[in-house]
Amino acid sequence: MKLSSSFNSQAQTKMKLSNYLFVFALLFSFLLVTSAHTHEDFLQCLTLHSEKDKPISNIIYTPSNSSYSSALNSYVRNTRFSTPSTPKPRVIVTPLGVSQIQETLYCAQKHRIQVRVRSGGHDYEGLSFVSPEPFVILDMINLRNISIDVENNTAWVQSGATLGELYYWIANKSRTLGFPAGVCQTIGVGGHFSGGGYGTLLRKYGLAADNVLDAHLIDVKGRFLNRKSMGEDLFWAIRGGGGASFGVIVSWKIKLVPVPANVTVFTVRKGLEQNATKILHRWQYVAPNIDRDLFIRVILTGSGSVQYGNRSVHASFNSIYLGGKDKLLPLMQKSFPELGLVSEDCTEMSWIQSILYFTGFQNGQSLEVLLNRSLTVNSYKAKSDYVRQPIPEDALEGIWPSFFEEEAQSSVIILNPYGGRMSEISESATPFPHRAGVIGKIQYLVYWSEEGTAATKKHVRWMRRLYTYMAPYVSNSPREAYINYRDLDIGKNNKGRRTSLRQASIWGTKYFKNNFKRLVFVKTVFDPTNFFRNEQSIPPLSF
Ligand code: FDA
């Protein structure tokens, strides 16, 4: 059954491919005769094509508008990409509905101006709001409706909503339903879901993308598609393959998951003098194999410096258990006694309060803070790795000196355990391939507040040194990486429309392993001219 349905889907896809190639040839000849246009032409086109009762003037920002800067910068989450030399969009469009997205895509293609889609603006390399080519930002900020269906445990959420808004409205309807997505409340649903999206429920329920039931997408031809009309290939691709390569995802239907009325959280901090290295080493054996109701991540930070002495590294074991502490304590005593967890370390609270706890708010804080969209930002550079073999103790010890270097004063390494539900989902079920056999994911982050390229170079060099040091201890062939922790160091596309498959495979297989090939196939069918492109978008096959 499975074989024949997959064959039918491939045959249908091939038919679609030949139809698209024909359309592609027509479109391409049209584009060749279209001379270079300016953003004024683009704006005129938008005015001409907008519906009379929906004038576009209210949703357009150009550099001559006084509110252009705030429209641009309110959702820049990394000041590395808000310098005077950062390329700026010619226009920011903030659509109020589907038709305005369709008009934007039509006029952008007609006038050969690139579109970058932004939902929450958290892209680590700023790809949703910076481009080396003339571009417009299609900002989803006005598209953030959320409707919760408690009876069926589902919700529709628009891409411009934040995770905080989603969690808030779920909690508003039910305290025993949740959703397995990320920790930071300001993250946009659009980028997060389309790149996978994980949070404290990943060992129990997998990724956000694993819990998507349907989606509404506008493709390069301006068609409004749902799961049925886009077909299973495209629906597969946007659940972990990064939305930016395939179209504009307007909204998502998600499956809400049960959470207990009371969960337990704790954070136990150990310094090197309290055996942090040994406990962390042991954590690698325990955390991915323990009861899937328990999620224990580790946050590593350094204190002191070579210059000032008093050096130490701290490992904070930051955890949520989907149950009461009466069950958690014996479980920890049996499986992870080295951590020495005691009742006083534990706090019971509702699942929604645990969201605030992980975001760093005090217990008892009003849930309204989840609706706050502002975020204090700095410059930062991040990278990711996957661990498939436990990192030996002496290799962990080799990391610690890097925390004491001058550039690392604001640096952090976060380890997230996998296992549980993550190991049960096959590598090819979605484009996100990091499943069975993964002990956990590492995220390296370094922040700075100094301005200028010298500061950026210095900190990025520090990050690259650490990444080089880690190479023998993490996954290889490929050295896996998480697309939602975007890293242009691992490779990027050529400027313009064409990049060879071979070149793109360098970074593509790191994010997607073998799924990269299927993503290329889907891209070739749905966007053969590579209109939706960025430095790490999936390239179509060229003929
Ligand atoms: P943004 O708007 O920048 O979009 C990211 C990418 O998706 C861009 O390429 C963009 O063009 C594309 N895109 C966005 N909306 C689209 C749409 N509607 N249709 C098509 N393409 C679209 N991750 C995680 O898994 N768990 C976590 O806990 C965290 N925590 C975290 C904290 C902080 C402070 C940051 C900065 C980031 C994270 N992340 C994370 C990473 C986060 O999941 C990742 O950056 C997401 O892509 C962000 O989605 P946004 O919509 O906010 O970004």
TrEMBL record:
One of its GO terms (biological process) is cannabinoid biosynthetic process. Its cofactor is FAD. One of its GO terms (molecular function) is oxidoreductase activity. InterPro entries: BBE, FAD-bd_PCMH, FAD-bd_PCMH-like_sf, FAD-bd_PCMH_sub1, FAD-bd_PCMH_sub2, Oxid_FAD_bind_N. It comes from the Eukaryota. Residues 85-259 form the FAD-binding PCMH-type domain. Keywords: Disulfide bond, FAD, Flavoprotein, Glycoprotein, Signal. Pfam families: BBE, FAD_binding_4. Belongs to the oxygen-dependent FAD-linked oxidoreductase family. This is FAD-binding PCMH-type domain-containing protein.
